[in-house]
Protein 1
Amino acid sequence: MTMRKTLDSIYNGAAALAATCMVGLLGMVMLSVLGRQFNFHVPGTDAYAGYLMAASGFLALAHTLKRGEHIRVTLLLANLKGRWKKGMALWALGFASVLSIMFAWSCCRLAWQSHTFNDISTSNDSTPLWLPQIAMALGALILALAFLDELVLEITGQRVETHNDEPLRSE
């Protein structure tokens, strides 16, 4: 398996996990709604819905980046040409790579510290917090990998800029 296929599999796998978390989130919300309608209570549904929402958001970050769907300020890049455009792209991707690595480090450290200190949720579910924080750390690690991937592709001249020509909608 080539490196490109391996990386794309990682991004797609994280997106599939994010989608699975979204389905789980729907299940938690539906369980909570049904509980109110039929007079039963399942403790922790709100907390688990929050954990699944955070997991789905973090796990989808890299896939969203690789599809060119992150919000980008392209006004400056659109007006630059040649080496100035390449230089600005390299600077932006390098800076984003450094920030995402720092972010991934912090997320991993937070999950590790929560595990070390036996930190648990303050809600009635009493979940060890390192469990939901693993998804956050994994998503941040994969995002850092995706930014590094984009940086290497830009350096080697293999990066394909994805443009979404669909106008912005804020409905």
Protein 2
Amino acid sequence: MFTESKLLERPLRWGMVGGGKGSQIGFSHRDAAARDGMMQLVAGAFDIDAVRGREFGVSIGLSAERCYSDYQTLFEAEAKRPDGIEVVSIATPNNSHYAISKAALLAGLNVICEKPLTINEDEAVELKALSEKQGRILAVMYGYSGYEMVQQARAMVSNGELGDIRVVQMQFAHGYHAAEVESADPGTKWRVTPAVSGPTYVIGDIGTHCFQMGQLISGLKVDQICCLRRSFVASRAPLEDDAHIMIRYHGNAVGTLWASAVNIGSAHGFKVRVIGSKGSVEWWDEHPNQLKVAFAGKPEMTYERGHGYLDSSARFERVGGGHPAGYFDSWANLYRRFALAMSKDGGAKALLGDQWMPTVDDGLESVRFMVRCAQSADAGSSWLAFE
């Protein structure tokens, strides 16, 4: 059960790059970090406009002198302070993640980066090696993976309750961009601009969420991949707003993934279903407190968050069973784990235990997924080796 007891001797000194005024993702990071009081925001470079970024930082309680014009100045100045930042979160467009993450790691900081980690595979491999060399954690913010019932699904697969995994069915298909909304929405415009977004739109923006979730729950590794993608809003080409992906896993299992921004009538449509020889589980982010469970020859059941029959890994409750937990709770669960893992407090690692969190390995796998999908689609939807 959640406790308000102090878990660290002091909160980690935390900074942000990006995520300034009007940024939903920036607020999500700040809310998550503040929830347990284990990180304290003390500095940032919040905006490409230095004046606007400073005004924003001051408006949320930071001193003006620690609201910097850019990430380079942020890292350099904070490194000279005895009370400088120890952790930085990166909430900027895709094409900037590599350079900022690399600079942060070289500055000796732990990093929490928005997804995708990078827009090409070589950069992701380099960041993984650098994080290991520097002895720092490079986490990637797959915010949906902090839900308790996702951990329950993962535990059931790991414990063998579903038998041999046969099928992983994934989708993240909404309808908000069925028309050319980017003409009046800068937040969508950069996502459909190859120089900023990378080689994909919906595959990298939302498809990587369900790919990572499928990997997390099933524990399977991808062998081959085949992708068909389309841009139904023609101005988005060569990037896609709809993609259908087939996956062959090592062993006998197969998977499908649908990522779409043109699924009219769907609010989110983020679902992962894992089917084994003995049973199946299904999780849907619009109903995150429930997990559909079925075993061969028995009626379908619904497991509810916060009950004693769940695996211990799914029993970190911020509020008791029956009270709905949501998006911000999932993010806060992950930030709690990040703080424990990044802290130098002697007891932090014991408190963390074997709790899972998304790291550079998840980031690298998802970048590889994004890149392979683009390569497959551009080669006439041919099957490609994943690694």
Protein 3
Amino acid sequence: MARFVFFVGTLLAAAPAWSDWVVFVDGQRTEVRAVELTERAVNITTMAGKRWSVLRDAVDVEATRAANATPPLLEVITVIETPPVAPPPAPAELSAPPQLQTIVERELTLLPEADVVRPPAPSTRPYRFSIALNGVRGHDTLQFTDTNQFELFKEQAHIESVYSDPRPQGFELGVQYRFAGPFAVGATVQRFENDRSASYNASLPHPFVFERFRELSGTKSGLFHEEMAVHLDAVVTKTWGPVTLEGFGGPSWFQTKTEVLVDVLYDETFPYNEVVFQGVEGRVLETQPLGYNVGVSATFRVASIVGVDFGVRYSEARAKLAVDQGREIEIDAGGLAFGAGLRFLFP
């Protein structure tokens, strides 16, 4: 018997110190890693490390305390003398008993709203209002020609100017409101600003020799050009997980300010066979044409309220710049433009 008691003591010393017991009011009991009694609930850590919380009414508190107290040696011997029980599975394979899981789920539904820890809302929830801020780059270069003809020494003089722009760059700020399902309305303000250049070629009649023209040519750079557009769009959206595709279109209002060459300045001396270049005269002209726009965009949501936005838009309007009485220059406003930036999404 002494050897048997020594063997039992050895087993007790080798038993895991982190094993506890939970006894429920219906008499069921289960082994857990830790038990914490609070004023309203019982916090349980299972053998697999999962955390559960149940109301105190579901647990026999006194029996649980008694089960976790150190038992007398006689009770331990009695337990050891019972037929051996199969060893429990490895801690990694342990899971909450079905009856414990059922009680936990039932009791958690009875907890007050403040005591329930809810997961954060998924990042794919629909949004109703959005703000987009994108950098924009035009695809096409703007080119147009202006020809100025006037009478000089009883003949027709003319000055031809050819304007060319690099691909415009700018930004756009847009807002959108989704009012019903996939349907939304949006407004976007685009602004481009760049310097343009113009090459000119003047053909001036000779004051004494008929049909003898004096030529003058050159290039003028650094001419000012600014274009702002307001697009009002009807929008249709389609969402797949974190990706939202949009198609849009509507009217556009443009405000174009551009500098053009209105005259070439020169000087001449006898015998007037050549002219001496003195400079060019430029003037900033403004026009406000109406047009339209269509486009598509894609937004990839990377956080709860932040997405990366890519889009392409084509807009067009025909504009006329009034230089002098009876003299106009026709230019195209808008064009194909690509944009990329951030979109902020709000429920």
